[in-house]
Design a protein that fits this description.
By secondary structure, the chain is an alpha+beta fold. It contains 3 helices and 6 strands. Strand 4 and strand 5 form a beta hairpin. The longest helix is centred in the N-terminal third of the chain and has 17 residues.
Length: 106
């Protein structure tokens, strides 16, 4: 996981969080965990792209799902499988962004 501080570079968002998951099911589990964690802290997710519809069972996911994007306003979370992360190389696109060390997940 990488956290990029985009405040010096972008007016669109303040931070990118980029995470890797091993499967569509793991992408969805990460998404659900992040949504729950943010909700506990009073931070809503405004929009999500790349996940199943709300209430849709995990078994119905598109097996080709590679990337979930969660727009939380000042924070944008990118959840990618390894091939997509290697292909898009978001960290390289934002190479000038300072990285914030991640010590724990809560």
């Amino acid at each position: 996981m990488v956290v990029l501080d985009l405040r010096p570079l972008s007016t669109v968002t303040d931070f990118f969080v980029v995470c890797t998951a091993g499967s569509p099911r793991q992408l969805d589990a990460l998404k659900e965990h992040i949504e729950a964690t943010l909700a506990r802290h009073g931070c809503p997710v405004w929009h999500t792209e790349g996940s199943a519809s709300p209430g849709e069972p995990a078994s119905s996911f598109n097996r080709q799902l590679q990337w979930v994007l969660m727009d939380c306003g000042e924070l944008v979370v990118h959840l990618l499988d390894q091939p997509a992360r290697s292909f898009y190389r978001l960290e390289d696109l934002w190479a000038d962004a300072p990285r914030i060390p991640v010590e724990s997940f809560e």
